[in-house]
Amino acid sequence: MTVTTSALEEAVRVSEAVENEYVKRWKEGGGQVVGYSCVTTPPEIIDAAGLLPYRIRALGNPNTEIADAHLARFNCSFCRSCLQLGLDGTFDFLDGLIETNGCDHLRGMFENWQYVKPVAFFHYVKVPHQTTPEAMEYYTEELRLFAKALEAGFGTKVTRPKLKKAIERQEAVRSKLREVYAMREGDAPSFTGTEALSLFLLASAMPADDYLALIDRVIDERSGTGITGYRARLMLCGAATDELELIGEIEDVGGLVVTDSLCYGARAFWKPIRTDLEPIEALAELYLKEMLCPRMYEDFPRRRDFVIDEVKRAGVDGVMVMHNKFCDVHGVDNVQLRLSLEKEGIPVLQLEKEYGSKADIGRIRTRVQAFLERIGDRS
Amino acid sequence: MSGSAATLTEILKPEGRAAPGLPGDAKEGLFDRVSSLFRVIDMLPDEMSDEEVEGLMGVLPDDARKSLTAMLIPRAREGSLAFMKCLSIWLDEAKRSPGQGRKTFLVPFCFPPELVHAFDKGFPITSEVLSSLAVVALEGQGERYYDMALGIGLPDHICSSNAIEIGSMLGSDDFQPQAIINAATGSCDINAKTHELISLYHGIPQFILEKTVDDSERGRKQYRRNYLGLIHRMEEFLDEELTEEKLRRTCEKVNVCNELLAELWDLHKNVPDPVPNLFSLYTYGTRFSMWGTDAAIDAMRAYVDVSKRRLKEGAYPADREVARCLLTYTSYYFDLAALFNWMEEQGYSYLGDGLDLLFPITIDTSSYDSMVSGLAEEAWNMPMTHQVGGESMSMCWLEDALYSAKDLGANVAIYSGHHSCKQTWSVASIMREELMKRAGVPMLVLQGDSWLKRTTPIGVIQEQIDEFIKNVVSEKRTGKRKIRRRLEDKTSDSPSPREGEGRGEGAVL
User: Fold this and answer.
1) Which of A188, A218, A283, B373 is the most exposed place for a label (fewest CB within 10 A)?
2) Domain of residue A26, CATH code
3) Which residues are CB-neighbours of A44 under 8 A, at least 6 positions away?
4) Would residue B399 count as lying in a domain?
């Protein structure tokens, strides 16, 4: 189905490693790496401190035996999987860890990580669940405190010019991701969903300048190419999904993922940052007010409208709303989303899954195959 | 972005009243069924003889009979009747509210209802209290409503204490509130999300009270702002000003309730514990529904009076108090006899559970500001809000549990492991380790659903508690491990340690 080219091959290969060669090179050059997980954490502030922002991921890791001694089986398997990698040494390259109250499971993950195997620098960014003026004011101050904490912890300075520069760099990265996503909207998309996820994952796991150089090559290579022969165009919505293999399975049975509103996806870059505000205020606006996450309250209509718009823009045939078992925020939000989309006449597959579970793949394939049967056959 | 012309309610709510996938006929809802049952209870006299109790049991359906048999056990009867009277007033007031021009607010248990009581035009109904009443009093224990919630596609890992009540609201022709106070934002995702779903589904306004997960002065200040913002939104919604006089009227009653609560807490410190195990449930059942009203004062006074009398009489249902148990979070509510009463008959005193961690204060009633600050502090200190809604879920929860364990002389901690409680589950291992390290209190980790009997049968729970106390706590009471004791027995002629020797600081047996 795909035509691979060298730059894309390199990007996909690099994205499959947790500690990739760019991270290693950064560390070898004396650089320090700060890990964060939640999409409400602005990497710009870490970048402005001269540190490498790295988004924690588990890449479908199915093993959780160490983590299970701390988190419970009633906790989301994505968080257990990330904790596993934190405790088994995979994330030992991190010099700092940033907690946010993204969800209850995530908080538990960070607390156990720090309890069992503390990372030298640890900071908690407290993120409100609303966008009232009071909440915005609080979050803006939280971001200032975040910058100060990095300054104190790493002996660096987050100046206004440095922050502006970091914002420009990260916005350039986000802009490229929007370009990649736009290249999937046509009848013959330039990227599969798996490739797009790889490109996304890489964007938050390597220095921005290196990424921009690589992604430009990938985009050049893929311009004018197109994928045909798929059965249906799918949109993915729901919980944290950095599982390349899972998207691969969905595409293997004929569904082509052409867009998403995922946490590891469009949610992180869909909106350009405002340039008419003070840098810290612009970040607060982008990472809280514009956040399309079910952790936010009184905001469901915006999330629904985003999905409906994407369905239209990308010519989506059916939407898959997924959540990892025990994920509360998506577990409930997905019901609302399913009912809303069905009312609009958009076919929906609501799917509960275990993160990274090989045992779950067969069941998921069957559900997706049945869904594809239902929504038609473009091929 | 494109907006949909239809309202959210129209989108989410299908034709008619019933939820998708369910029969279209309206069904009798939880609230209506529970309040009908309580109309009967309201007719009961303040004191009942054994014969009268027996007569009552003859006309009740099985599940209600089972619960009432547990509640009307002689040692707890007076307190149980007081509790039921209090709830009867609560349900009746809620039912009559629309006719009296009052709007009802659906609130979660972690929100102090006294703020709503302070308004003339508002009345609180508490989600989890309703669910618990369904489990205790209704035939089928509310499971039909839980199934209704799952019927619209909600996952089976949502909290049954919310699912039962909201299932009724989603799938039946039930009494409905006019607004929702969503106060679990920051402390429990599933609680907050399910209440938001109800708001969207029925088009009921939702007022958020976000708990800042920030224990600094800045975080507290922000929470007070949020609390004040809630008051203003309620005033607007009810078209009523919350005057200083109204606040004082309620806060003075809150202070009386809090004083009685503190007295009951102190009574628990006695050995054996003179407070019947069931009173733990009654205390927070009262706290979550009618706090700041005369009905709550009457109920609390009854719990204190009964306990004082029992202390004076040296009454205890077992030969001796074997264990002093602190349940670190929720309890099990689907079989009161087989948990609360059974424990006390084994000599296992129930000092309280996580929902009893209420930390009452005396509200300064001198001014409007002092009262609002006091109420906000009460809200900050509520169970779940203060613990897993704290800056560190593990440390805030541990801090409360440690304080309680030490203050009450607990020697056993039990985590019920309510399966939906992801926050506590995620840090339960830290709690277990630190409780042992810092207070020498071992914690039993159970797995079950606090409101659904179908998950773990009560017999299994009994067995695990029993085994744990006999094998871990009783051993610990001798202060020596088996192997060492055997060695000593072989090398020394000295008599075996007597019961009660060798216990650590804080042990009271």
Assistant:
1) A188
2) 3.40.50.11890
3) A163, A166, A167, A169, A170, A279, A283
4) no
